[in-house]
Every structure is written in C-alpha cells, then in structure tokens.
C-alpha cells in the first residue's frame, strides 16, 4: 500500500461543540494515509465512522478497526492511524468541560519519504 502524507489529507474537516463535548471529524480520501496524532492531557475517543484504520499508541500496535467503532485513547498516549480504505471518516471526541479546550500534550515527529 502506498502511504500518503497527512498534509495532503483530509479533504474535509469539521468541528462541532455541544454541552462541553468537542468533536472533530475528518474525511480521508485515500487508503494508506498516515495520520500522525499527538497525546492529550486527558483520555478521549476516536470513532471510526466509515472505513477502517490501523492504530498505534506509543508505538504499540492496537490492531485494525472498522466502522462503526470507537477506540478509547488513554491520556498522555501518542496515537497514530493509517487508513485502510478510501473515504475513511474519523471523529475525535473530547470532553472540554475542564478548561474549555482540547489540551495537546505532545506531538509526533513523523516523516514519510
């Protein structure tokens, strides 16, 4: 599978907020898109709304997940995804009642040749 840099994806990103729940949705057009993530101060859910992905947390392979499926990401765990299907949609869901924002703890350093 040819890997695609995240910078070229997603083709759509939307943000939603209701009752202190923040949801970011992204539509990733190409299978093989590497989505480097980051860690957060608090746990959150990444929900595969369509398509499928492989998931790693702190370089530990968690497996392949297909829609519809939620994946709990523990606090302070760096996480990344690789899409396995075209037009995969991922929702990142955070409770922001603590301080009104999504706290990013640390970013991935990822390069693809």
Characterization of this structure:
The protein is an all-beta fold and 113 residues long. It has strands spanning 12-18, 21-28, 34-36, 38-40, 44-50, 52-57, 60-66, 69-73, 79-83, 88-95, 104-107. The strands form three sheets. The chain has a five-stranded antiparallel beta sheet with strand order 1-2-10-5-8, with no helix packed on it. It has a four-stranded antiparallel beta sheet with strand order 3-9-6-7, with no helix packed on it. A two-stranded antiparallel sheet has the order 4-11. The model has no long low-confidence stretch (mean pLDDT 83).
Biggest sheet: strand arrangement: 1-2-10-5-8
Order of helices and strands: EEEEEEEEEEE
- Beta fraction of the residues? over 45%
| End-to-end Cα distance | 14 Å
Radius of gyration, taken over Cα atoms and rounded to an integer in Å: 13 Å
Low-confidence stretches: none
Q: Average pLDDT, to the nearest integer?
A: 83
Q: What structural category arises from helix and sheet content?
A: mainly beta
**Overall morphology:** globular
Which sheet architecture does the biggest sheet show?
5 strands, antiparallel
Helix content: under 10%
Number of separate strands: 11
* Helical run tally: 0
């Amino acid at each position: 599978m040819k890997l695609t840099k995240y910078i070229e994806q997603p083709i759509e990103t939307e943000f939603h907020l209701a009752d202190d729940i923040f949801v970011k949705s992204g539509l990733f057009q190409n299978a093989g898109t590497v989505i480097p993530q980051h860690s957060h101060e608090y746990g959150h859910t990444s929900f595969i709304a369509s398509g499928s992905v492989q998931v790693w947390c702190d370089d530990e392979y968690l497996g392949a997940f297909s829609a519809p499926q939620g994946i709990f990401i523990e606090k302070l765990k760096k996480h990344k995804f690789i899409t396995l299907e075209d037009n995969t949609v991922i929702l990142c869901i955070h409770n922001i009642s603590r301080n009104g924002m999504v706290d990013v703890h640390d970013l991935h350093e990822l390069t693809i040749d």
